[in-house]
Amino acid sequence: MASRSLSSLRDRTLELAGRHIDRHAGPGLTPAAAKLYSQQVRLRANQPGLSGWRQQEADERLEEAVRLLDAALIELEEGGEPSRSWAGLRRAAELLEWLSHPDICPRGVPVRLLAAAAYQLAGYPARSSGLLLAGSRLRVKGPQAPLADRLHIADRCGRPFLE
Fold this sequence. Notes:
Blueprint: H1 2-24, H2 31-44, H3 55-77, H4 82-99, H5 111-122, H6 125-135, H7 145-157
């Protein structure tokens, strides 16, 4: 009886994780993600940001990225669909990358480093390395330095990050 209950709970968890990924990491961007992307593109091009942009939106997209990472890792760990997991990881990495612009970045959150880690997990080591190299002008220091070093080593050696 207990194993049936656990199996049912596992199935329900996978279902919810999959629905979340499908809703937020499908082929198109959600309106909120598209707004973040537009804000980041404008600022990167030294243009004025969107007039309707609020810092609260960056915080909300950070929460969305974390929820996508959680859902994708549940899919991976519980034997869900691998392609769905990779899509969730990739979209989380994209959101984190777009959040990494200095004028968007939530205060005190190493989003560039998190984006690089998420790209590495999603199977995009070149994108991960590109973010780390772009951020190396600022040289990662403090508690994030060991993770940054590990990501650099994994990329240079052609090894997966999670060995």
